Amino acid sequence: MSRKQQYLFLNFGLAISILLFINVLYFSTNNWDVRRIFYPQDSVRLISTSKLPVNLTKGIKRILFWTEYFGHEDFPSLELGPTGVDVQRQFCDYGCEFTTNKELISSSDALIFHGRDLKTESFEVRESSLVRPNHIPTERNASQYWIFYLLESPVNTFVPLEAFNNFFNLTMTYRTDSDIYVPYQRLVKITETELQNETPNRKLLQKKSKMVAWIVSNCETQSKRELLVKELKKYIQVDVYGSCGENSCSSHGRDNGLACYEEIGKSYKFYLSFENTLCTDYVTEKFFNALATGMVPIVYGGANYSQHAPKGSYIDARSFSSMKELASYLLNLDKYDKLYLKYFQWKKHFRVENVTVLQRSWCRLCRALSTGEVPLVRTVSNLKSWWMRYRNSTVCTTPDLPETLELL
Hints:
It is built from 11 helices and 21 strands. By secondary structure, the protein is α/β, with parallel strands linked by helices. The chain folds into 2 domains: 45-184 and 358-396, no CATH class; 187-352, Rossmann fold (3-Layer(aba) Sandwich), CATH 3.40.50. A hairpin with a 2-residue loop joins strand 19 and strand 20. The chain is globular and about 95 Å long. It is an enzyme of class 2 (transferase).
């Protein structure tokens, strides 16, 4: 073979190799592997992204609420504007179009499935009863994200999540290991102007004549918080508001709304931010509402609270051996104003962000999609295992409180 023939043969082989590589790359990012990666069930038809209708919003990400949200699908219940578009950037620096119109599924960049509103159905396979998703789309495009969204704890998750293995691409929850992390609330740094208004002083104490308040509507819980409060009331004044108590807020707001916290915050020094479940990362609005309304939260939960607020801004009930010891500590703070006011030093640097958890959820999702923060290819292979366990440990614990109700 001449040198010229060798040269042509090598170039021909190189060209064939390049074509084969392009072919493999194309199919690895299209229907064949995408069906396996995104949704292995045969009942869902994958459509090519090249056949999608153009999004009329031109460049703005479209997000479709596929399920209801606690039985609602209207924009007010989702805390969005009447059109589903945050045009004025009222709560988010990124603009996305939100819709509940299922006819727009093909042109939607992401679908939100609320965990408490997921549907399943049973079916039989070789005399074994199994479950599978129900009321789900019949098609999806290769670049579309299907998102598991839930703010309730695993204890209060009643859907058989094993039906949704290999179904979702992303998770969006209060858990810090979620793909899109959405805390119930957060502290943000304040400006110098805000600092002048938030500096703690003894004026804060002039109207506070009462000790401990608690707003509660769930009277029997997994965390057994109601038993701890019953014990605590033996040693210190605790006024209970809501359907589980004898007190009620005025007509200005619901017993569990922020207006109620603002009302009792004028009179009470401490608030029981006791969670109904003891689960990893689970810190709800009751903690932040107390901070925002001038009370010192007494926390009882399964989270690391120092990840959410500075130490010295709250009191951890689990750091005391008993409710009697906790009560003694609170009575001492009540006696010495200087010690009590130290729990407000955090206000010199931070404030509670004035954004609701739903608005924060939609904004963080919009930002993640708009900036490419989320992975291009991802599947949640075992949703139930992930949701129920954290770093090889059980996510939620049930306290085994002895008769003396010691916490340690």
